[in-house]
Design goal:
The protein is an alpha+beta fold. It has one domain (17-102). The protein has 4 helices and 5 strands, in the order H-H-E-H-E-E-E-E-H. It has a 5-stranded antiparallel β-sheet. The N and C termini lie far apart (46 Å). The model has no long low-confidence stretch (mean pLDDT 84). Residues 1-19 form the signal peptide.
Length: 103
């Protein structure tokens, strides 16, 4: 395989990343919080639209906020009572300052 074809294959494989794929890894960060999930989600979605379209799924114990850009999950926040865990697609996704401000 030519080097350019190999690089293209690697880049295309990254486009299929889902929230479940990201959550199979260790979290990129974990923050303690006393704020309610709805308030955290509102703050995060207001501040970081640049990472893609936000998608929220909530149940009794956890709210998951995923940002999807061009079919790939770029950033996932798992908000549960007392903590927020964050996963990111790669190191270029800078979320720390906004996350600290919102949690």
């Amino acid at each position: 395989m030519k080097p350019t074809a190999l690089i293209a294959a690697i880049l295309l494989a990254g486009c299929a990343t889902t929230a479940a794929d990201l959550r199979e890894r260790a979290p990129s960060a974990t923050y303690p919080t006393a704020r309610p999930a709805t308030e955290i989600v509102r703050c995060l979605t207001d501040r970081i639209r640049s990472f893609g379209q936000p998608n929220v799924i909530a149940d009794q114990t956890e709210t998951t906020l995923t940002f999807v850009d061009k079919g790939a999950a770029t950033l996932v926040f798992s908000i549960s009572p007392g903590q927020v865990r964050v996963w990111r697609l790669h190191g270029l996704v800078r979320f720390e300052r906004v996350a600290r401000a919102c949690v």
